[in-house]
Structure formats: C-alpha cells, structure tokens
Design brief:
One of its GO terms (biological process) is signal transduction. By secondary structure, the chain is α+β, with helices and mostly antiparallel strands. It has three domains: 189 residues, Beta-Lactamase (2-Layer Sandwich), CATH 3.30.450; 130 residues, no CATH class; 192 residues, Methyl-accepting chemotaxis protein (Helix Hairpins, Orthogonal Bundle). Helices cover 79% and strands 9% of the residues. The strands form three sheets. The chain has a five-stranded antiparallel sheet with strand order 5-4-10-9-8, sandwiched between helices. A hairpin with a 2-residue loop joins strand 4 and strand 5. Helix 1 packs across helix 2. It starts with a helix and ends with a helix.
C-alpha cells in the first residue's frame, strides 16, 4: 500500500510536533519534579530543627546511653513513641529516633506494627554515624522510597550515639509529576489535533496540481496520447506539466516507428519465439531442478553425517553430565547428614550454655549472699572492738585501784595488766579483720558484677548459637532440595541418553537413503543435459528474429507504454487477436529467453 503525499506531509508535520511536544514535556516534568524535590528537602531541614527544639523543650538535658539504652536527660527514649507521634502530627512527616543504627522510637510502620528494631540504610549509616554529617536525600525506609533528612545525635562529649530522622514518602511527589505530565500531554494532544487539521488542508492545497497531473497520466496510460496537462500555478508544478506535454509529443513520434517495427516482426517471430523459448526454458528449469536436487542431496548427506557425529559427542557429554549429577546427589546427601550432625551439636551447645548460665546465676547469688554475711561479720567486729576498748579502760581502772591497795593489790595489778594487753591485741585483731572484710566486700562486689556480665554474654552466646542452629536447618533444607533436584536431573539425563542413542540410529538410516537418492539424481541430470543441448540448437536458429523483438522492447521500455490508441486501430486489433491464436507474446519473456540461452551456451 502506497502512502499518498498528503498523508506524508501530515505525518511529517504532526510527527515533528509530537516529537517536540514529547521532548518539551519530558523536560518540564523533570524540572517540576526537581523543584518539588528541592522544596521538600528545605521543608525537611526545617522539620529537623522543629523536632529537635520540641524534644529539647519536652525532655531537657543531653543525649546519652545508659545501661545500653538511649536517654534524653532523665527520660528513656527507647519505645517512647509519644514524642515522635506528636512531631509527626505537627509536620506530617515520618519521624524516627535511632540508637546507633537501630530504630528505638518511630511512627514508621511495617506489616501493621511499628518498625522498632529495624536498621537504617547502609549509605545513610556511613554518612551520619561514620562521618558525622547530616544526610538529606532519597533513601529506603523500611522498603519504601522516601525524601529523608538524617541528623546525628551527639552526647555531651560530642560523640555520635544515634540518629534523628524525619522524612516524607516519594509517592505523592511522583503522583504530582504524573498528574502534571497527563495535563501537559492533554494540551499537547489538543495542539497536535489542531496542527493536524491545518496540515491536512495545507497538504490538500499543495497536492491538488499533482492530482491533476496524475489524472492526465492515467489517461495516457489507458492509451489516450492526445491529452495534455493544464496546470497554471506559476511554480514547479506548472513546469512539470509543460515537461509532461513535451514528453507526450515525443512519444507520439516514437509510436509511429514502433508500429512499423511491430508489423514487420510480429508474424515471423510469434510462433518460433514462443515455441523455442518455452522449450528452452522448460529444459533449463528441469536441468537446474535436477542439479539442485543432486547438490541438495549431497549436502544433506554431509549434514546428516555431521549430525551423527554431533549426536555421538552429545551422548558422551550427556553421560558425563549424568555422572556429575550423580556425584552431586551423593555429595548433597553427605552434606545433609553433616548438617544434621552440626544441628545436633548446636542443640547440645545451647543446652550446655543454658546450664552454664544457670550455674553462673547461682554462683552470683551465693557470692552476693557471702557479701551480705561479710557485712554482718563487720558489724560483729565493730562490737568486738568496742568491747576491747571498754576492757582496756576497765583494766586501766583496775591497775589504778591495785596501786592504791599497795602490796595486797599487786597480784590484781598483774592480772589487770594482762587483761589490758589482751584487750589491745583484740582491738588490733578486730581492726585487721575489719580491713580484710572491707577487701572481701569489694572483691565480692566485683565478682557479682563479673558474673552478671558473664550471664549476659552467655545469654548472647545462646542467641547466637540458636541463630546458627536455624541457619543450619535452612542449609539442611536447601541441601535436601538440591539432592532431590539432582536425583530428578539424573533420571532425566538417563532418559535423554536413551533418546539420543535412538536418534543416532535414525540418522544413520537417513544418511544411507540420502546417498542412494544422490546417485539417482546424477543419472537423471545427465539425460536432461543431453536434451537441453538439442534444444539450444533450435534456439540459435531463431536468434536473429529475437534480436528484432529485443530492439522493439528497448524502444517501448524507455517510455513505459503498454498499448497505443493514436489512430492506428489495425495495430491494436492485431495485438489483441494474435495471442489468442498462438499464445501470449511477451517481449519481456523474449529478453529473458535470450539471456538464458546465452548462459546455457556458455555452460556448454
């Protein structure tokens, strides 16, 4: 189907407008989206400052981590969602407080629950926690793309201990861009329709002279060479019409010569040219067909032989693959057994670590009880010290009374002196015991703390080992699946090997049949070549007559004329009647026969 010039002009102008509108629309949408994104980033900066000021007002004091939890002043922020919900209501943002890289308070939800315990995106963690800089841009927030602002949370020493975050989803901004693009596309479509209407009428005005010239040419094609073009546009179309009229004059002169040539050669060349030409053509086609069959059969035999070789190679590779798959299945089963052993070992490890945790807890209680008993001993030592002091005082009083008694109190004085020495020794011993008890209490407190820390680490070890057990279970399931697939593949490979062997046998049978067909084709080709040589001798006798017809074809081919109606009605009748008596006379066929005859002569 040919496309008219009017439609081509319409498509060209409308297509140009469409491309221009698409480029401008794309640029406008990108620009608008960029401006909206920049505005959202500025809002997020102000929301960061607003939220920070609100937290300082609501919870005075500096940020710090105590006992592994995040505090603002004296307020625990872990799980404190009231503040982030309020800031979210004021700003319309998603708000989150991170301890390190982990969410501890947030109004971001995942699967219907607050996303507590989830972590920040790696690129944000690097910028904010590692480099201590504020991050503003797009980021993935619990699986949703957001415009975000992340600011480091610093303690009183300036160390980064967390992240303060506000953000808004990217979806509304993309929806705004899509809506803008749709409206812009609607206006562009209206402009395209209007431009198409203008282009349609303009193309009609331009194509009107061409339609007039085409009508005149159609009349000439039907045999009326008396028609002339009447175009008065004073441009290139008018010049084209004048050239067409000059061409029609020249054709009238040439047709006179053509009529004379046709009358001289028509009767003499018709029967001979048709007969010899068709015979030569048929024999050449038969020879070519037989030759192609022989060549194709040889090629087929070679292809079948190559196919047989490739099938043999494929069978060998399939067998090798089958061996590899069998080995993979065996290795998978061994790995599955090893995974089960590892899983049992992990279970035993968890039980042993739980026993260790229980023992450590009991030891911590025992040591704590020992500390309490040492405090009671300290109290008793204090009482002993007080008694020793009183005894020392009483011994001193007794010595004074013995001195007053003179000779009668000398023995009592000796006893009082011994009691005083004993009291001093008791006081010194009590003081040493008090020092030792203080050291014991201090060491006991350290032991209790170490055991509590050991309990925490043992619990963490249990969690890690449990997670390793889950991983081992997943690995075992995956290995079992691989083993099952490997067994299935091994079975399929065995069936494929059997099918390939059958295909190889069939290909060998086809190769034998193809060789027999090639031999028969060569014999038929030899007989056809002999017949073709006889027909070529007959075709040579008619070559002079075909030359006359060829000259006639060259004259008519120049002007694309099929029939004439310039006043010689007898010629028109002869041209119509002759084919009915002896068959169609085709000058194009005569030229082809001449070329084919020369090629056959060269082949001989």
């Amino acid at each position: 189907m040919r496309l008219r010039l009017r439609w081509k002009l319409l498509v060209l102008l409308s297509g140009s407008l469409l491309v221009f509108s698409a480029v401008m629309g794309f640029y406008c949408v990108l620009t608008m989206y960029g401006k909206v994104t920049a505005a959202s980033h500025e809002k997020l900066k102000s929301d960061l400052a607003l939220g920070e000021a609100y937290l300082d007002l609501l919870y005075p004091g500096s940020w710090e981590i105590r006992d592994g939890k995040l505090y603002k002043g004296d307020t625990l922020m872990n799980g404190n969602n009231q503040a982030v919900d309020k800031i979210g209501e004021l700003t319309g943002d998603t708000v989150t407080i991170f301890q390190g890289n982990t969410r501890v308070a947030t109004n971001v939800f995942k699967d219907g629950e607050r996303a507590i315990g989830t972590t920040v995106a790696p690129e944000v963690e690097k910028t904010v926690l590692d480099e201590g800089r504020t991050y503003i841009g797009k980021a993935d927030v619990v699986g949703t793309l957001n415009h975000t602002a992340y600011q480091p949370i610093r303690d009183s020493k300036g160390q980064v201990i967390g992240i303060w975050y506000v953000g808004v989803p990217d979806t509304p901004y993309r929806a705004m861009a899509v809506d803008f693009a749709l409206k812009l596309g609607g206006f562009a479509l209206l402009g395209l329709v209007g431009m198409s209407l203008i282009s349609w009428f303009l193309a009609g005005y331009i194509c009107r002279p061409l339609h007039q010239l085409a009508d005149v040419m159609n009349e000439a094609q039907n045999g009326d060479f008396t028609v002339r073009a009447a175009i008065r546009t004073r441009d290139e179309f008018e010049e084209t019409g004048e050239k067409f009229n000059q061409m029609m004059e020249l054709l009238g002169q040439l047709l006179t010569k053509v009529v004379e040539l046709v009358k001289s050669v028509f009767v003499s060349t018709e029967q001979l040219s048709i007969g010899t030409g068709e015979a030569v053509k048929v024999t050449e086609q038969i020879a070519a067909a037989i030759e192609q069959v022989a060549s194709g059969t040889d090629n087929q035999a070679k292809s079948i032989e190559e196919t047989s070789n490739r099938l043999a190679g494929m069978i060998a590779r399939v067998q090798k693959v089958n061996q590899c798959v069998t080995a993979v299945a065996a290795a998978s089963e061994r790995a599955d057994r090893a995974t089960e052993d590892g899983n049992r070992a992990i279970t035993q490890t968890v039980e042993q670590m739980q026993a260790i945790s229980s023992a450590v807890s009991i030891s911590a209680g025992t040591v704590r009880s020992l500390g309490e008993r040492s405090q009671e001993i300290g109290q008793i030592v204090t009482v002993i010290t007080e008694i020793a002091d009183q005894t020392n005082l009483l011994a001193l009083n007794a010595a004074i009374e013995a001195a007053r008694a003179g000779e009668q109190g000398r023995g009592f004085a000796v006893v009082a002196e011994e009691v005083r020495k004993l009291a001093e020794q008791s006081a010194e011993a009590a003081e040493k015991i008090s020092l030792l008890i203080g050291e014991i209490q201090e060491e006991t407190e350290k032991a209790v703390q170490a055991m509590e820390q050991g309990t925490v680490e043992v619990q963490q070890g249990i969690d890690v080992v449990r997670q390793a057990g889950l991983s081992f279970k997943e690995i075992g399931d995956a290995i079992e699946s691989v083993a099952a697939r490997a067994r299935e593949v091994a079975a399929e490979m065995q069936e494929m090997t059997f099918a390939a062997n059958q295909a190889a046998s069939a290909v060998e049978n086809i190769a034998s049949i193809a060789q027999e067909t090639a031999a028969s084709s060569e014999e038929v080709a030899a007989g056809t070549e002999e017949q073709n040589a006889n027909m070529q001798e007959l075709a040579t006798a008619a070559s002079s007559l075909r030359d006359i017809a060829w000259e006639l074809k060259k004259l008519t081919e120049r002007f694309k004329i099929e029939k004439s109606s310039d006043g010689d009605g007898d010629l028109g009748k002869d041209n119509k009647a002759a084919p009915e008596e002896g068959g169609p006379l085709s000058l194009e066929g005569e030229r082809q026969r001449k070329e084919e005859g020369s090629e056959s002569s060269d082949a001989e």
